[in-house]
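Example (one chain per record):
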Amino acid sequence: MSNIFKIFDFLKNLEENNNREWFNEHKSEFTQLRKAWIEDLGKLLAEMSIYEPSLINVEPKQCAYRIYRDTRFSANKLPYKNHFGALLGVGGTKCNCASYYLHIQPGQCGIYGGIWCPERDTLNALRHAIDDNYDEFTEIIEAPDFKSRYTIIGDTLKKLPQGFSPDTPAVKFVKMKEYLVEMRIPDSHFKSPDWIKYVADNFSYMKPLNDFLNYTITEEL
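Predicted structure:
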C-alpha cells in the first residue's frame, strides 16, 4: 500500500480532531508521513523532469505546503489544513509562474495547473496573449488528450475588461481573472506506488498550457 493511504487515514482523523492537543499527541506520526510525502514528491519531480526541465533542480521540500493554517484573517480558526498539497514549479510553493499542483484529501484528490490569482499586470498580459493568439490557445485546450482530462476553472469578471473588443472570439477567456485547470482523481488511484507515474503522465498533458502562459510571464513582462 502506498504512503498516500496512510496519509488518508491521518487526514480523516485530523478532520475529526482538528485541535492542537490531538495534533501534538500525533506529531510523530505526522512527521513520518510528511517525510514520506516529501520523498514521494522527489520521485514525482524526477518523473516530471523528463518532459519539464524547469523542475530538474527543484527541491521536493520546497514544494510541500505546510499543514498549519494562517488563521489571522480568517473566520475559520481551525489550526490545521485537512489536506496535503504540493506546488511543483520553480521555487516550489513560492512559484509565481504557471505550474503544477497536487492535492491529496480523502474524496477530493486532484491535480491542477495554470496560474492562480496573478498580479494585475501579469493578468492583463495573459489576457492580451490569449486574445492575440487565440488560435494557438484554442488548439491547446481543445486537444483531445487535454480536453478528456482537464476542466478549465477560475474566477471570471461579469463584464469585459477595458481594451478588448466585444467581438473577440476569446471573450470567455479575456474575462477570466485566473487561468486554472483541474482533474479530479479517485482515491483508489493512489492505492499503488504507480500513482507517481500516473500523476506525472497526466501532468504532461498540461505542459502546453503552462508553456503558453509562461511564455508571456517570463518572456514578455
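Caption: The first strand starts at residue 84 and ends at 88.
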